[in-house]
Predict the 3D structure of the following.
Amino acid sequence: MKRIVVKLSGMPFDPTYEIDDDTVALGDLVRVPGSGSSFIEDGETGTVIALESSYTGPCKRATRAT
């Protein structure tokens, strides 16, 4: 399980997600779950900008975008 940082359009910060795919790389597109707020819609696609994060709190699961 990796903790990746994802760039999403219109976000004031870059959130961290967990992903099962060990082959994910910088620049890959991933699909993220909704956040329950108006910031992140369910199924939104973002770009991986880091393959590790110092954030240690709970993370939602991302999947590779097809």
In short: Strands lie at 2-7, 16-19, 29-32, 44-50, 63-64.
